[in-house]
Amino acid sequence: MFNKDRWNEILEALTANKFRTLLTAFGVFWGITILVLLLALTNGLKNGATVEFNDFATNSILTWSQGTSMAYKGLPRRRRFSYKLNDIEALKTEFPEIKYASPRNKLGGYRGENNVIRGTKIGAFGIYGDYPDYINQEPMDILEGRFVSYSDIEAKRKVCVIGIDVITGLYDKDEPVIGSYIEINGVNFMVVGIFKKPNSQGDAEEDANTIIIPFTTFNQAFNQGDRIYYMVITAYDAYDITELKESIFGFLKVRHTVHPNDMSALGHRDQSLDFKKMSGLFQILSVVGYFVGALILLSGIIGISNIMLISVKERTKEIGVRRALGATPWEIKSQILQESLILTIISGMTGVAFSAGIIWLMNYVLNENGPVQNFANPSVGLQVVFIAFSILVVSGLLAGLIPANSATKMKPVDALRIE
Predict the structure, then answer these.
(1) CA 307 to chain centroid
(2) Both 150 and 217 in a single domain?
(3) Could you give the number of structural domains in the chain?
(4) Strands, E assignment, 60-218
(5) Looking at the domain assignment, is residue 76 inside a domain?
């Protein structure tokens, strides 16, 4: 237990040579600072990479049809085929593990030919036909109005939801948008909603230049019949879509008379697998951050241990007097350990505070200047602070252990003889 006299003794010992103490403390300060900043930067990279998914449901696959590479049941190789709308209901019936299965169709692109007209203004935008469930798979912020609904699907209403940059291209400032009409490839659609993708970075420009209309309306207006450009399939959280996809592909191959061993007929992108690979990479980076930070911190701890050994040697006569006056070996050892522990904790927590300031500054700059590609919100959790504190406590005790043992091995008579 600390008391006033003990605190005074510790303070006097640590301030006896201020410059030496500061240099020693700097090693621990710098080690903890590097450790926290490395973990914060790793989290920033992870957050930035996660943003690249645009909050897309990670337990999902995107799949589309491609040309067959094998002849099968009298049908030739290199045969082109398309997914059909009835594939969606068939999948939901066959696989109860599927939470959402959304068809998508696409027309044009925001860098393609002009396909949208409003009054005297024209523009090139990506036109998508979607089902209402799609907003659950790729979340969107509805800034005004609404998203497409199932009543729109059933009635094949000519309505649309537009991205924020469509407004910039087709509307004057402060002009009302909801309830207005735009012409897409000669067909008029009423605007019922405005959306923005949350935290979008990689394809932010394309997202903002997107127009979404009901899937059934899209197919009717643009002569797509019941064809699907691609579909997005999301499994319930209790199931892994990566484990389900082979069964799903096998089912789709049967429905479209594709050879079971034809690996190129169905294209796909596994969001779940991509996300797992990315998460694994950043787990490795976190381990590397801990390892590098621990090595730097170790050099600081060794410095504290060396300084404490020097301090014990300089105070040999003092220790001898205290032993002669009745101080027990444990009292001598505990003081040395406490001095080491306090020096380590103070310098280490100062490093934590300093690194927190740098992290705040990085986030301030990012907020003021906009997002950086593949980097967002560098931060560390409270668990990192607790881990850092635990490391400091253990390190402080270890740093003082050798000097403390050295001090208790002195015989009072021998210590008093030293000049």
Answers:
(1) 42
(2) yes
(3) 2
(4) 60-65, 83-84, 98-107, 116-118, 121-123, 126-130, 141-145, 159-163, 181-184, 187-196, 210-214
(5) no
396 belongs to a structural domain: yes
DSSP assignment of 219-255: HHHTT-TTEESEEEEEE-TTS-HHHHHHHHHHHHHHH
Would the pTM of this model clear 0.70, i.e. be above it?
no
- For 65-90, write each residue's pLDDT tens digit: 988 999 999 899 889 999 999 999 99
Residues 6+ apart with CB under 8 A from 371: 48, 51, 201
130 in Cβ contact with 148 (< 8 Å): yes
Tell me the Ramachandran region of residue 179: left when phi exceeds 0, alpha when psi lies from -120 to 50, beta otherwise: left
For 94, the token pair is: 């066959």
| Cβ neighbours of residue 144 closer than 8 Å, sequence gap 6 or more | 177, 178, 193, 194
Residue 302, C-beta contacts closer than 8 angstroms, at least 6 positions apart: 399
For residue 155, being part of any structural domain is answered with yes
Asked if residue 235 is part of any domain, the answer here is no
Name the pLDDT band for 315 (thresholds 50, 70, 90).
low
- The string of pLDDT tens digits covering residues 85-127 is 999 999 999 999 999 999 999 987 655 666 899 988 998 898 9
* Rounded Cα distance, 221 and 156, in Å: 9
Question: For residue 142, what are the domain limits?
Answer: 109-225
211 and 289: one domain? no
Domain boundary pick from 184, 202, 225:
225
pLDDT digits (tens, 9 = 90+) for 339-395: 777 877 888 888 888 988 998 998 888 887 766 666 777 888 777 777 777 777 777
CA 186 to chain centre: 43
DSSP 275-329: HHHHHHHHHHHHHHHHHHHHHHHHHHHHHHHHHHHHHHHHTHHHHHHHHHTT--H
Amino acid letter for position 255: R
Same domain, 168 and 293: no
